[in-house]
Design brief:
It contains 15 helices and 16 strands. By secondary structure, the protein is an alpha/beta fold. It binds adenosine-5'-diphosphate and magnesium ion.
């Protein structure tokens, strides 16, 4: 049923693609690095990765909305210039015009392509029918449920008969049941060749969603985004979530995602100075945006239930996107470690669990002063200032050489949160200053 009628054709090819952005301070940061990828006709490809790994950026390059900084995007083996004429996108946020009816919204893409009004209307009505929006042609988006709104998003994208249908987390704004229903309806349409689409690219952070839908799963890593795995899925549709082969694949992807190559910092990082002309381009250790409290809570749960991370996440009903940052943080702080998808408390982790609040703070403090580069740098700077105060801008300036402005903010917030927990330093919101509360705080060792 899913066998391609003709040999698979290359639709999109990415060769050595990099994407970087210039920061407000003039520095370049790399979002995606060395991406080689091929999308062929007849396949659904899932692009899976943690948030911030560059999934949307990659999809936007394929759609021709943005150009790569380096490397090539080819469409039918020819360099893509400007918008990709063969691509239509479905967005997570639906992106409908509130002042247009369902029909008018669906017609939009056709209008942009210069299709004549009569043909436009006929094609739009036909797609509205296929997508199950019959009877809602004249409704406005605000009258529709989330699921129905996303149907409009699908109808609008499919009405232009794209060769490649791109979807950026199309089900994540919907409730679980609506999402599941829409997912299967889409799969039906694809498998029964009811939609005029030759390939599908779905961006997702849901492992099960990827395994349900995709013929191939591309796993992206972060900082910068690289392809970590390209896995074929050979299970036939419709796939049984409970079957051992389904579970094995979910496990495999889970292991790839939860085994981040933790960026160990070089122990003798030179103390930076603000006037440093060229900051080192080496990777900067990235702090996952979680509170120490969440890590502590997770460790407590882990204490009784060591072992398989995927089962644990299922039991706790946590998505990989929720649990990944906690695990990364627990590893950075040397409280837990992962091997082959199994997670266990370290000796320090075990000690942490049985300790009172003051001892816990001490454990975190020691670990941070020795291993968390951003916290080390903040402490060093605080000690170097006579009044033991620094502005957050100073830290943001440094971070923006490595992270996007938004991510730099997150990194700073996490460092402040962790630093406060360990009573290493404090933060004055109104003035945006970080300061030492007690001057007897030790200076970090490694900086
Ligand atoms: P994902 O979709 O996987 O969550 P994105 O592709 O949206 O990731 O973003 C990847 C990274 O690129 C993020 O850190 C984001 O802040 C950064 N980024 C995205 N667009 C821009 C931009 N226009 N300028 C600067 N940084 C950006
Ligand atoms: Mg995204």
């Amino acid at each position: 049923m899913v066998l391609a009628k003709t040999a698979k054709q290359r639709l999109i090819t990415l060769e050595g693609v990099n994407k970087s952005y210039e920061q407000p301070n003039g520095q370049q940061i790399t979002i995606l690095e060395s991406i080689d990828l091929e999308l062929r006709t007849g396949e659904i490809v899932a692009l899976l990765g943690p948030s911030g790994s560059g999934k949307s950026t990659l999809m936007r390059m394929i759609a021709g909305l943005i150009a790569p900084t380096k490397g090539k995007v080819l469409y039918h083996n020819r360099p893509l210039i400007g918008l990709n004429p063969g691509v239509a996108i479905v967005f997570q946020s639906f992106a409908l015009y509130p002042w247009l009816t369902v029909l008018e919204n669906v017609e939009l893409g056709l209008k942009a392509k210069g299709v004549l009004p009569d043909v436009r209307r006929q094609k739009a009505l036909q797609m509205i029918d296929v997508i199950g929006l019959d009877g809602f042609e004249n409704a406005y988006p605000k009258e529709l449920s989330g699921g129905m709104r996303q149907r409009v998003g699908f109808a609008r994208a499919l009405a232009v008969e794209p060769e490649l249908l791109c979807m950026d987390e199309p089900f994540s704004a919907l409730d679980v049941l609506t999402a599941e229903n829409l997912r299967y309806e889409l799969l039906d349409l694809w498998l029964e060749h009811k939609i005029p689409t030759r390939a599908v690219l779905i961006v997702t952070h849901g492992i099960e969603e990827a395994v349900i839908l995709a013929d191939r799963i591309i796993v992206l890593g972060r900082n910068p985004g690289r392809i970590r795995a390209d896995l074929p899925v050979t299970l036939s549709h419709y796939r049984d979530r409970k079957s051992p082969s389904f579970q094995a694949l979910v496990d495999q992807v889970y292991k790839i995602l939860t085994n981040p190559e933790l960026e160990e910092i070089e122990p003798s990082t030179p103390v930076f100075s603000v006037s440093e002309p060229e900051p080192p381009k080496a990777k900067y250790q990235s702090l996952p945006a979680v509170r120490i409290g969440s890590i502590a809570g997770f460790l407590e749960i882990l204490e009784d239930r060591q072992g398989d991370l995927y089962r644990l996440a299922q039991e706790l009903q946590l998505e990989v996107d929720d649990i990944l940052p906690i695990i990364e943080a627990a590893q950075l702080l040397d409280l837990a470690h992962i091997r082959e998808g199994d997670i266990n408390l370290t000796e320090t982790g075990k000690e942490f669990i049985v300790s009172g609040i003051d001892e816990r703070k001490q454990i975190i403090k020691e670990r941070m002063l020795n291993h968390i580069r951003l916290v080390q740098q903040i402490c060093t700077l605080l000690h170097s200032k006579r009044n033991n105060r620094i502005t957050e801008e100073l830290i943001l300036d440094i971070l923006e050489s490595y992270f996007s402005a938004q991510e730099a903010q997150k990194q700073l917030q996490t460092a402040i949160d962790w630093g406060r927990y360990a009573e290493l330093f404090s933060y004055d919101e109104p003035s945006g200053e970080i300061f030492l509360e007690q001057v007897d705080i030790p200076e970090p060792a490694a900086v």
